[in-house]
Every structure is written in C-alpha cells, then in structure tokens.
Amino acid sequence: MTFSDKLQIIRKSKGITQEELAEKLNVSRQAVTKWESGMVYPDIMNLIQLSELFHITVDYLVKDNQCSKSMESAYDNDMDQLIDFKLEAIKNTYAGYAESCGTSRPGSNDYIYKKVITNIMISG
Fold first, then answer.
1. Could you tell me which of 58, 65, 59, 54 has the C-alpha nearest to residue 13?
2. Which of these, 41, 2, 46, lies nearest to 22 by C-alpha position?
C-alpha cells in the first residue's frame, strides 16, 4: 500500500476531513489533496506531525508493504537457538556444578538454574 493510500485510509478512519487535517498541520487543503492523490509527498516535518497525530511511525507511513520484511520465522528460530545457547552456557559454568544457583542480583529477572538429580533404577 502506498503512502497516499495509507494517509487517506487513516484520515477517513479517524473521521477527519482533508480541511481539518490541513488546519491541524498548518497546510492548505490542496496540499493534503496532493499527498492523498500521490502527486507529491509531504516534507519531513509534516510526516512527523502526521505520525504524531495518528499515533503511527513515519516508517509505516512511507514504506510500501513490498518494502517490509517478515522476520517472524527467523526470529522464532533465532530465539530458540539463543535460549538453547543460554541454557547450555549455564550448565557449563559454575552453576552446573552445584545443587542450585540463585540469581546474583536479588529482585532481578535472571534465570535460576537448578540441577535435577534423577535416580535411575535398572532392573535385571
């Protein structure tokens, strides 16, 4: 979706007319019309004002959907790898050689590692 489409949809969803938007930004209604028709883009100061007015990022306003990248699957995979690495690192440090090891900073959200000892009975 292009900037002009996004601006028009967001403005209409908020129930604001082109003239009201122009007044809020101290520009002419014709300027807003040109932005929404895709003839011109607003300058950076107006983009910032639009983002603040509509509570959206400038990135969202100016980037086409084609420009955005989906990182969800990579993120999930990276997060799983990071968690596995962290757990393995904890096991291979001093915390892995004691019955349990609490946080070194009380009240923090540090991981707490507890060594679980299991008895395995082998019957013959």
1. 54
2. 46
Q: Which of 82, 74, 70, 68 is nearest to 111 (CA)?
A: 82
Element spanning 80, H or E: helix 72-91
- Which pLDDT score, from 0 to 100, does residue 92 have? 67
The full DSSP string for 94-109 is GGGGSSEE--SSTTS-
pTM of the model: 0.52
**One-letter amino acid of 56:** I
Residue ranges of the chain that CATH labels 1.10.260.40: 3-67
- d(CA 110, CA 96) in angstroms, rounded, equals 15
Per-residue model confidence as pLDDT tens digits over 36-81: 999 999 999 999 999 999 999 998 888 876 544 454 544 456 777 7
- Class of the 3-67 domain? mainly alpha
